[in-house]
Design goal:
Blueprint: E1 5-11, E2 16-22, H1 24-34, H2 38-55, E3 63-70, E4 76-82, E5 86-91, H3 108-112, E6 116-123, E7 130-135, H4 142-152, E8 157-165, E9 171-181, H5 187-200, H6 203-208, H7 213-220, E10 225-231, E11 233-234, H8 240-249, H9 252-261, E12 265-268, E13 275-278, H10 280-293
Parallel strand pairs: 5-11
Antiparallel strand pairs: 1-2, 1-10, 2-9, 3-4, 3-6, 4-5, 6-7, 8-9, 12-13
The protein binds zinc ion (ZN).
Zinc ion is lined by residues 236, 238, 269, 271-272, 274.
Length: 294
Amino acid sequence: MMKDYAIRATGYGGKVRLLACTTTQLMNELQKRHGTSATVSAALGRTVSIGAMMGLMHKGREKLTLQVHGDGPAGRIIVDADANGNVRGYVTNPQVDFPPNEHGKLDVKRAVGTTGMIYVVKDIGMKEPYQGSSQIVSGEIGEDFTYYFTQSEQTPSAVGVGVIVDKDLSIKASGGFIIQLFPGTEEHVITELEQKITGLGNVSAKIEQGYTPEELAAELVDTLEILEKKELNFSCQCNHDRIVNVIKKLGLAEVQSILEKEQQSEVTCNFCNEKYIVEKHELEQISKELEGTE
Ligand SMILES: [Zn+2]
């Protein structure tokens, strides 16, 4: 299977910005790690594609987190991405599932909910991270981020993302595009773009047919110029030391209570579902260190 990647490009002689990606393999990895249902895979996959593409809008060590806090039964969707194509993500209740909606599509809106907030946190190396937010307007994710870009970042955008899930819950296709208008884009370009977006049809169906990000982009804009291509990979930065630090932050009373009750602590990383065991002697060490500071 072809590796996932994203491209950053311009169209119409630099008048619009375009990003496109495939995230099929990434989503297969996340589906296996988290055991997501078909409906949740669709919700997570759409968010993962948007996060991966937004990562390419940044550079160097910059990182961003997308949080979809809907009022639906799936709970929260959290996706981390960076400028180097590293992506991870999870959903609070991965097994929530529904029958297809009236259009025969996975009922993402029902799992996510139709009210709530979207948060975008960008760590751009400053003391305080940038945080943008907007309301959930549909629960279908693509429309919600279209609204986010327009409202919170004042950038008129079109977002098309989709996921196709197989009967065995593996991911057949995942990916999408983001088109953003630079200030002063002429009316005729906007009209043409709208026609091309409609003409493209279902983006996940195109990816299932084998369309690459470049081929998707070529269908969406004239005079396509590709500026960057980045491989996308699942990556979680958790490790034993980080988990020990998380336990330290619980404080002395809590650590002593764990020692009394369970002797050791089992911690699961939300992002990758890896389990870490922090052993008795480590907990005792933490407890000693905390006694010294509290
Ligand atoms: Zn992890």
